[in-house]
Specification:
Layout (H helix, E strand, L loop, with lengths): L1 H7 L5 E7 L9 E6 L5 H11 L8 H4 L8 H7 L7 H19 L3 E7 L11 E8 L3 H8 L1 H23 L26 E3 L6 E10 L18 E6 L2 E9 L2 H13 L6 E6 L2 E3 L1 H8 L2
Parallel strand pairs: 1-4, 2-3, 5-7
Antiparallel strand pairs: 2-4, 6-8, 6-9, 7-8, 9-10
Helix pairs in contact: 5-7, 6-7
Length: 291
């Protein structure tokens, strides 16, 4: 119904604001979602949890064209509705996450894609903002405070103001521009203490990639909180610092580390594999490692 209201009023932008939750108390940070295919199981689980509320509505099947939130294939179908507005949606979502990180001072988990029913059939750019995890004690305290709510609201407003100016072709106020990847900050090119550059060896190696960011974090940084008791390496690719744990010559050991990192607050962590320093398919690497 929210999407229908927006469509009837010919809205130019649809913003849905939520608080996140997790079975673990470790995850923290903001996320902004746009409609799309679920790239990870974690994204799918968030979408299914949010979509489950429609089961409480009367005649929900009639209202949502027979959509079943418990059917994974249904999410793929309705995710295609927002394709026409994907570029603008991602643009605004990125501005939100930039403001949350640079202005509000929160930990940003980035822009993600998933099939949210609330974004379904919106005839305009649309995003769903997860402002933080109520299951994390520190974030719950922040989100329940007047100051925290004002700060989050201000971040969203600043992102909207910058987006509106950009869409209308007017000058964006310098005050609204957040420098999240400034070339003037030498710390981003200096090796961080306790977090070392990755180095590839010979043979098959497995690693767990658990985080990507625009800056190089030092050991003890809040974004690395869940990995503080394990060695962390990084590589820089296309302007992003990718944080990894490993290497492992044994697939089972890599899987164990993957589960540890997911439980520690990195639900989007995934395995990668290399052979003599060259990236290869994980299953192919697994087969090669046991020959």
């Amino acid at each position: 119904e929210r999407a229908a209201i927006a469509n009837r009023n010919k809205a130019d932008l649809f913003i849905c604001i939520h608080c996140n939750a997790n079975n673990s108390s470790a995850p923290f940070g903001t996320e902004t979602y746009v409609m799309g295919l679920h790239k990870t199981e974690a994204n799918l689980s968030v979408a299914k949890r949010e979509n489950d509320v429609i089961l409480m509505e009367d005649n929900y099947s009639d209202h949502y064209d027979g959509f079943n939130p418990n059917d994974p294939s249904a999410h793929i179908i309705f995710s295609l509705y927002q394709h026409a507005y994907m570029e603008q949606s991602i643009n605004f979502a990125s501005k939100c996450e930039d403001q949350f990180k640079g202005y509000v001072g929160r930990s940003s988990r980035g822009v993600k894609q998933a099939g949210f029913l609330v974004l379904w059939k919106t005839s305009m750019p649309a995003v769903l903002i997860e402002t933080g995890f109520l299951t994390n004690a520190e974030e719950e305290k922040f989100l329940n405070s007047d100051a925290g709510q004002d700060k989050i609201a201000s971040g969203i407003f600043r992102a909207f103001s910058a987006y509106k100016a950009e869409m209308e072709g007017t000058e964006v106020s310098p005050d609204l521009i957040v420098q999240t990847d400034s070339k003037e900050e030498p710390k981003k090119t200096v090796q961080a203490k306790g977090v070392t550059p990755d180095a590839y060896g010979q043979g098959v190696e497995f690693r767990v990639q658990f985080l990507a960011a625009k800056e190089l974090y030092p050991s003890g940084h809040a974004s690395l909180k869940g990995a503080e008791n394990m060695p962390v390496t990084w590589v820089q690719e296309n302007g992003w610092y990718k944080y990894r744990s490993g290497p492992f010559s044994n697939y089972s050991e890599a899987q164990t580390r993957l589960q540890e990192l997911k439980k520690a607050g990195y639900p989007d962590a995934f395995l990668i594999a290399h052979h003599n320093g060259e990236r290869m398919d994980v299953q192919e690497a697994r087969s090669l490692s046991i020959r």
